[in-house]
Amino acid sequence: MPGAWFETIFDERYPELFGPLEGNAEREVEEILGLLAVPPGSAVEDLGCGRGRHSIPLARRGYVVTGVDLSDKMLGIARARALREGVSVEWLREDMRVFRRPGAFDLCLSLFTSFGFFNDRENQRVLDNVGVSLKEGGILLLDLRNAGKGLSRLEDWDQTIEVPSGTLWMSVRFNRRTMRATAEHVLTRQDGIRISSAFDVRVYSMDELGMMLGKAGMRVKNFFGSLSGDPFTDESGRMVIVSSKE
Structure pTM? Predict the structure, then answer.
């Protein structure tokens, strides 16, 4: 029987299906460090680290990085890149609903909508684990799709874009009862081969996230419309929430 979508989507298809949508990781790391001013030498947890796009640049800048992900394939890519570049990162294959390391981290990063995969109880458990794993005064940065934008209109949409390997069709559908967004990506490669994947995430409002973070022992300090610190509005593409452990 096939596993849950988050157990199967992060495989060799992922770079082709989602790579064109990813930002420049080096620039994003610079933006994050400018936003948070966390000093080199700090312990950083990259939760849902994937291929190590952010873990490796952080480690190169002198941070002590632990990359946590459930996908063996993504971690294998990350390990190979870190080895090629001579960068030291602790890579852990762990489920974010389970992994916790009490009082270990100065900063936890959850980037590119790596939160909301599960049901409400399990999503709360992820934040609880982060709260336990942060040091006192430690920071969590959540980088999510702008839920305010989605919740205000709940628009289904389809888009087709040209990417280096072919034509990528993307579809998003909102379930107004469960407040989840289901997305499907289909890539038609230049050689005619089609590959696809589908996923769904819980779309939370700012108020909901504030309450969940409070239950996990954290308090929202600020929120932005991008990793570069743009003001947050309903039209922002991202919802970046910065909270700290009290």
Answer: 0.88
